[in-house]
Amino acid sequence: MTTQDAGMTQSSVRSANLALVLGRIVANSGSISRADIAHQLGMTRSTVSRLVDDLVIGQLVEEGETVAGARGRPAVPLGLRGGTVISLGLEVNVERLVATVVDLRGEVRSVAQRDVDVVAMTPAEAMTALAALAEEALREEAGEDVRVSGAVLALPGLLDRDGRRVLRAPNLGWEGAEPPALWDFTFNGGRIDLHAANDIDCSALTVIREDPGGSFLYVTGEVGIGSAVALDGRLMTGRHGWAGELGHVCVDPDGALCGCGANGCLETVAGARFLLAAAGQPTMDALVEAAASGDPRTLAAIEHAARSLGIALGAALNLLDVSTVRLGGHLGVLEPWLSGPLGDELGVRVMWARHSGIEVETVSEAPLRSAKGAGLAAQSGVLTDPAGWIAPLVER
Ligand SMILES: [Zn+2]
């Protein structure tokens, strides 16, 4: 091995270790010390200390007030630093455009949004409007030291692997569009690259941030039914990034025609449009009201949706061995009525239900969840390669 090889190996070990240490701080921001990290990663305290010092100088991590640690020893809690490295989390949906600025702590620092009929716009018009919103959202953050790690656009559709081209987006009609090619944006003199990502995957990233390391199936009722799988705190995206299409799992081969072209998908029973039609209600608010007042047609429609959800979820849980289900969107809102029949179906269908138990929880309503998750996705480069981000400051 030449000296140069040894040097490269050393620097790649340092890069990998910086990422490991930062990963521990992401998972326990504000409540982890150097000693905790050393213990968790099996590293020496002095190695961890040096790495943490670099992350602090590099402005990714900050130290809190000293507190009494284990056995009374003083400990300095470490947390992610807000406001030094930020990202743009963007969202395009059928009825609105959103730009958020998200910091490393996962906090949304500013939001600019416009309610608009996106379907009536061309992708180019929408992307121009989005860039104006991004500029507005960034205006408050324009300090000289601020760095933008990137921009991710959450959209309701399937994308190619590189996050460039939209393959399917029936609700938007953006098939074949390339949002990154329609995006030209600079900040503090530097070009900010854009990637596109599936909106449900983005919202799942937000849910994962709230439960680091968690394993769960996230199912959310939107225009359709979206879902995503988290295993040990990582999004399971599949071979091409297309995993999690629970909404198009068949629950009735003789069922109604779905927007995807198949019959009897879960979406055709539990998706908002179909559910409202079955219940004979004009809006989700009206449906909730009708359910609360015991309207038999509404309750029957919800029960049918719950049983169908149980069929699809039962298959998914049998395949995945995940025992927590998080319901969002209208499925979360309807949980009080869904949970009984859904629990019955899962209890019968999931092989191991009697041995592990299945938790069905609701995820609180948060209209910015996709945009925020897009912002988190735009930080993944910082978290996987902190060495590159801190280098200019550490070497100063
Ligand atoms: Zn379908």
From TrEMBL:
Highest taxon of source: Bacteria
InterPro entries in UniProt: ATPase_NBD, ROK, WH-like_DNA-bd_sf, WH_DNA-bd_sf
SUPFAM superfamilies associated with the record: Actin-like ATPase domain, Winged helix' DNA-binding domain
Family per record: Belongs to the ROK (NagC/XylR) family.
PANTHER family: BIFUNCTIONAL UDP-N-ACETYLGLUCOSAMINE 2-EPIMERASE_N-ACETYLMANNOSAMINE KINASE, ROK (REPRESSOR, ORF, KINASE) FAMILY
Protein name (database record): Uncharacterized protein
